[in-house]
Structure formats: structure tokens, C-alpha cells
Amino acid sequence: MSRSGSSNSGANISSILGSTHKRYKAPVSSEARASRLAPVPASPGRPKTPSGRSTTPIPEERGISMMDVSNVDPEEVLVDFENVEADVSGEIDPSWFKSSSTTDDKVMVSVRVRPTNKPVAWDVSADAHTLTLDPLFAKNDQAQKFDFDAILTGSPNKPIYSTVAQSHVSAAMEGYNAVVFAYGQTASGKTYTLSGDDEEPGIIPRAMKDVFRHIKHNESREYLLRCSYLEIYNETIQDLLAPVGSAPVGLQGGNGGDIVLSPLREEVVTSLKGVHEVLHRGESHRRTACTDWNARSSRSHSVFRLVVESRERLSGVTRPQTPGGSGRHTPGGGRQTPGPRLQAIGGRSVQTSVLSLIDLAGSEKATSDKERTREGKYINTSLLTLGSVIGTLSDNAAKGKSDHVPFRNSKLTRMLQPSLSGNARISVICTINPEAGAITESTSTLLFAKRIKSVKLNAQKKEVVDTDALLERYRQEIEDLKTRLAEKEEVLADNSPRKLSRRLSAREKIDESKAMKDLNNRIQQLTKLILTSNTVEEGGESRPGSPMKLDFDMEPYQLQQELLAARVQLESQARQILALEAAMPPAQNIEGTEAELRKMVQDEIQKRTEKETWAEQLVKELEKEKKLRIKLEEERKALVSFVSMVDSLGLGGLSQAAGQLTPTSSPVRNKRDHDEGPKLPSLLDQVPEEDWSILGDLSFELEMKAKAMDGKSPLRRGILGELKQNLTSS
Ligand SMILES: Nc1ncnc2c1ncn2[C@@H]1O[C@H](COP(=O)(O)OP(=O)(O)OP(=O)(O)O)[C@@H](O)[C@H]1O
């Protein structure tokens, strides 16, 4: 299973958004692909090309920065009819912009029959909007016939979008909450319908394009768009726009029966490209896995939400185009600029609506894989809960009852509670596999579709002076900034009653000018976040990037200040350069200094090398000396033991005799004679150090021989005599 960038979903969105990303799910098997040309009657739309679909993987996630709405960088996100980017042209049905066709108080229910080249068990009548189970397969010969708002077949996604979703997207743009969701057994085509692929973009990318078209064609309103993307996996809500591993999203009841999802990222989008990036990132995080039925089966329910804030623009205002054609304008603080101005204090009401596009995971049988089976249980349980919620709602509607609805039994139904309770336009597209082997699952899907059809809706527009709406917060900030800018201008103006009593110093003027420039920048940035028809570009070119190179909308006074500030800055930089030059020594001095320095360094290196060599020699000498000392010490010890052995053998005379060999006599007394007469020096004292080694050898020899015999034997005496002789001669 993956929750990585391996999905190709970005593509299906991208093709409609004009990008090169590839499709979301793996292609159908060749068999299934062939089935696109299957004998199921086709709904209107352009014919499908027989070519296989591209499977080029989407690029790795590009680390698109996350955007926290509360801390949004306005430079990146404001949009309006003048500044909406990307190509929103083509295939526009003007009537679509005039009205929202979903005035119904019922859920719109459509069935999409997936193409197949195997024998089908259902008789499909797209014109009559009916589906009938072939009597051959019917149990007890009871023909099952279902009729819905639309029965759709074939591979093209465009007719699907215009039939089941376009009016709901329009409703969302007009202030109604709208929900479109796909329901059906696994591998029946839900993701294909919602996301589509390169060749056949699905409902989500088509809906987003329509959103920008709507803005382009509605000059009387301005808009702010935010989107979020989440999935419900094993009953845990995950934010698909947050980095992988982020904390799950909590779900709580809010004011007025609303649901609050937190923490959930909402990203302000100002262009189709921006929406594409968000969708691409979210889909790359979706959990999909290969199952027994689908190479890329969705293992979660996914919900793409677009929050649409809009309000009336002031009448009769048009935004001037900058030389770059970006449509940006520079609000002029207290000045009367010709550009449109967001409403002054006392604001217009803001309409807020949410468009939710939901791809439910498919119901499935247990699989051979343990993990897939576990996921399947969660999926089936939440779909069952959805079924029972729909069942109760439709019962309540049919019988005028108000029985408890078990919304809280699953995250999915809890999240859908406000919409299912009536405050949304809902369109459900049920996907089925018409093959004989899938009759049970298809029948179950159709029964669900039938039940949800009778749920009663009563969607209301939410239009209030909403201080929480981002649009309103930005408006308020823009107004505050303008007031501050106007005050500064007035203080600086020569003929102003608020003019300062003293002349401003050059430094103060520069500071003031800089502060005004910052205020102006911020106003422009905020203004850019708000979309209007003037800011939507039909050609789809990007808005010119650099905002403040030179702003021709500036007042002459401000331009003068800018110029002054720039000059002073240049002068100061020139002074700094001069000062640095003066502080530097002449070139030849630098060269001389360099040569000296180099020589010093070389000398240092040589000295260091010499010291190292000397230290090495010293260490060697010390080693030698140490070895010598050890040797001498050993010899001394041997001699001591020899002497004591000689003493123990009663050969004190040897010592004496040995003592006579040496020119030096030690005054040290022999311990034997300690009481009488002059004391003989010990043998060791009498032997010069250089002869100790000879004594050592003799000592060793003596010891060996002494060990070899009985100490009292005549032989011993002979040997000792011999030794004595040796010693005397040495
Ligand atoms: N109408 C159709 N025309 C052509 N191909 C289709 C159609 N419907 C589905 N497919 C193909 O069938 C395969 C399965 O479809 P898809 O993944 O959309 O099913 P699903 O219902 O989303 O499955 P799951 O619930 O397992 O996620 C895909 O390869 C898709 O391209």
C-alpha cells in the first residue's frame, strides 16, 4: 500500500489544468480497457480513443510550501476577477453562469455503468433513465427495475461532469454548500469519475476550471478561495496536504450544527495552477493499494473541499491594468485612485459556501491479504453506517418522522452530517459493474441509490457579515493600512493642516518614505488575494512576478520620495566604498606585505619541522637509555643475588678477595664484621660498574653448578675453588 508520491493522480487533474502530469490510478487491464467500447449503450459525449492511457508517474513531491491561512503570505495567494490566472476559456455554456440548475430539494442521483466486454446482466436505458436486471439473472423471476435522475455509460467524463456535477459547482459559487460523491463497489469507476486521467479529466479538475470561469464571468463579485484535502483511513482522518506523519485531524461539532475539522490545512488558491498543485500533492498522499480487484484501489474515503468566500463589489468600479497587464492596482490610501476599492468600514456581507467532492472507498469482499481485509472491514463498516444514516433520513422524510439518525457511528457520516441533514445540494453518482458476476454488489449499490434519492434537502445560502471570513479579515486589514497611509501622506503634505511645525530632516523623510512604501506593498499584496473577473486572465498566462520594480500608480509625491531615498542610498554606498578604499594599503605595499608574510610562514614551517625531527631523535635516545637502565638493573639484581649466595656458601673471603681487586675501597662495613675491626666493602661495592656484567655471568654459572650438586660434596668445594680462581683472575 502506498501513501507516497507514486500515484499518478496529478495527471488527471493536470490535463484539464494544462499540465503534463499523468493519471492517478493504474490503467485497467487490457480486457477492461477494451470494454470501453463495450456493448453497453453510450451516453452522449465525444467518442473514446482506443489508445491506452499514459502511465507516466507523477514527479516526486516538490516540497511545495504549506500555507497556514492564519499566517498566509498575501503576495502568494490573493485572487480576483482581474487576476485569476490560467486558461479558463473554451467550452463555456453561458447559461451555466446565469443560474444554478439545482433548485431541487432532493438529492440528485445518477448511475454510471462501467463499460465491459463481458456479458452484462442489466438492461440499460439511458434515455428512459432506467436500469433493469435481465430476467435471466433475476431471482424468483422478479424483474428489478430502477430509475434515477440519469443513467450514464461509456468512458467520456465530460458528459458525466455536466450531468451530475456542473450545476452543483455553480450552486457552490452562488453560496450554497454542495456535495458530489461517488459510491459503488470496488473497481466500478469512482476514482475514474472523480479524478479521471490525462485523456478524461474527471469531476474534480473540471469543477475547478468552472470555478475560475465563474469568477471570470461574474464581474459584480469578488472571491477568496481556500482548499483542503483529507482522507478517512481506518476511521482516522488524515490531512493530505500536511506532511506525512502529521497528527490526525480531529472532528468536533461547531456552532450552528457545523463540523469543525482541526488541525486541517486550508490553502488559499489564486489560480488553477495553484489548485493543481494542491490536488497533486494531496493525491500523491492518498492511500491506494493493489487488491484482488483493482490495481490501484483507494483504501480510504477522500474529501476535497473548496471554501468559497465572495461578496458584492462596489458598483461602477473597474480596476486599471498595470503596464504588465497583471491587473494589480495600487490602493492609494486616502487618495481617490480610479481602481476598485474594497468596501469601507461597515462592510458588505460575505457569502461562504463549501464545495465537497468525495471519492468513497469501494465496498469489497474479504481478500487474501490480511491488511487489505482489515481496511476492507473499516471501509464496509463506514459504508454500512452511511447506508443506515441514509435509510433513516429517507424514512424520516417519507413518513414525516424525526427518528434518531446515527451520524456519530462513523467519521464519514459525522463529517457529512450538516450536508446530509439538508443544508447542501447533493449529487450522488453510483458506479456499477454491469457484469453478471457483480449482480449482488450492483443491486446493493442501486438500493443505496434508491434510498438516498428520497432524502429531503433544504440548502440555504449563508450570507452574513462574517468577521471570521478571510475575505473580511483581509478587507479590514486593507482598510487599516490605507488609513495609516493616508495619515502619513497628510502629515507630509505641504498644505495639510496636520503638517508638522518643523521641517523633517532628510533622514526622517527617508524613514517616512520607507514606511509608506511598506504600507503600500502590504495593501497591494492583500488586494491581490481577492479574485474578481478582471483579474482572471482568459489566456492563462501567469501574472507578472515582481510586484514593486516601479509602480506607475504611485503619487508624484511618493515617487519623489522614492527617488530621494534611492539617491541617498546610492550616495551612502559610494561613501562607504571610498572609505574602504582609503583604509586599504597601496597595492605595492600589499605585495610587500604578502611576500613577508609568505616568508614568515615558510620560516615557521621549517622551524616546526626541525623541532619535530629533534623531538623524534630525543625520543629515540630516551628509549635507548631506558633499555640500558633496565639491563643494568637486571645485572645489579643478579649480582646482588650472586653475592648473597656466595655469602651463604661461607665464601666471605671471595668478597674480600674480590674487594682487593679494586683500587677503590669502600668504608662500608660488611654486615658479618659489623662489630670488629675495619669493615670490608661488599663485593658489589668493590666491583666497578662496567664489570658487573661479568659478575652477572659468573653468578649465573655458579648458581647453575651449585644447583647441580650437593652443597657439601667435595665436588662442590672443587667447583667453588675453581670459581674463586676465575674471579681472582678476572
Ligand atoms: N467508465 C470507465 N471507462 C473506462 N475505464 C474505466 C471506467 N470506469 C473505471 N474504469 C477503469 O477501471 C479501473 C478501476 O476504476 P477505479 O479505480 O476508478 O475504480 P474505483 O471504484 O475507484 O475502485 P476502488 O474502490 O477500489 O478505489 C481503472 O483502471 C479505471 O481507469
TrEMBL record:
Q: Which InterPro entries match?
A: Kinesin-like_fam (IPR027640), Kinesin_motor_CS (IPR019821), Kinesin_motor_dom (IPR001752), Kinesin_motor_dom_sf (IPR036961), P-loop_NTPase (IPR027417)
Q: Which domain of life is it from?
A: Eukaryota
Q: Which residues bind ATP?
A: 184-191
Parts forming coiled coils: 457-529
Disordered: annotated segments: 1-64, 313-342, 654-685
The residue ranges of the Kinesin motor domain are 106-455
**Is this entry keyworded ATP-binding?**
yes
Q: Which SMART domains match?
A: KISc
Q: Which UniProt keywords apply?
A: ATP-binding, Coiled coil, Microtubule, Motor protein, Nucleotide-binding
Q: Which Gene3D superfamilies match?
A: Kinesin motor domain (3.40.850.10)
Q: Name one Pfam family in it.
A: Kinesin
Compositional bias of type Low complexity: which residue ranges? 1-19
Please state what the protein is called: Kinesin-like protein
